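RETRY 2/3 - previous attempt timed out on the joint model. Re-submitting the same 349-residue input unchanged.
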Amino acid sequence: MRDDARNAARERRKRNIVLALVLGALAILFFLMSIVQWHEHSGH
Amino acid sequence: MAAAETLVLNRVTTVGDFFALLKPRVMSLVVFTGLAGIIAAPGHLHPLTGFTALLCIAIAAGASGCLNMVYDSDIDALMTRTAARPIPMGRVARDEALAFGSVLAVLSVATMWLFTNLLAAALLAFTVFFYVGVYTLWLKRRTPQNIVIGGLAGALPPAIGWAAVTGTLSLAPMVLVAIIFLWTPPHFWALSLWRSGDYARAGVPMLPVVKGKRATRNQILAYTLVLAPLGTLPAFIGLGGMLYLIASATMGFWMLLEAFATWRERDEAREPAARRLFGVSLLYVFVPFAALIVERLLHLPPLWT
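RETRY 2/3 succeeded.
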């Protein structure tokens, strides 16, 4: 039972790390896309 | 106590469970045809914008698959092919999957609008609506024409990719849509020929269940007879070159041979010809679309200008 609880906690931690990585990657993508859009609209 | 422990174990949702909700295999096909639309379209798109557009198409396809699994979890539990999906297995709650799919759908459409254009975003939103609202909620449990009409959702990605680049639609992307639209029925009916017991048990009115296997074989052959020549059409409207023509003609001929073998098949227990047709039909989409992508990347000229 203790092993199950430990596994569940590990799985939750893994899920949170993946979620944080995905959100971080999205934030970077939005930032880079903003630069691309700004460049294209300013005629560079 | 043991049952309670099992329930607790089942409720620990892994990252893999959420990924499985996105139907990654279907997603790969959609991404590939969407990429073909982006690359084949005339005009310039910043590579990062192209990547973002493709990501939006992939996420929207995943969201559609997820919402489909939410509604179909009852029948998924009854079919061998789908019983191990996260919701029927009790690893993801329906509410969680509903929230997950809805957030992804809104996020993908909004991002597409923000970074490409309204037409691409509208087409993407229409695709999600059509797959979830029209196919899943309305057609799938009501008519054997479910995958014929519903196939439009899976056929649209090349047009979405094209629209993301050009902001418009024309004959060329619609021909690519038509090819996938006509490819969908023989592809799924081949699968349903050897899975008809599954569909019958779940009460899904697939063609072999409602009209019988003979009618299904006839329909597969009829659709493939139209599909094979249509598949070569991009080479004659200034879209594809010699490589595309060879790839599409070869694959069309191969698929026609397998459709004919399926039409003649008498082994109704194992359906070997239908299984082969299913495999070849997967190649039928990948090979010509890959040829189209390669031609554009290598700047090979189209056959007709």
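The mean pLDDT of chain A is 88. Closing ticket.
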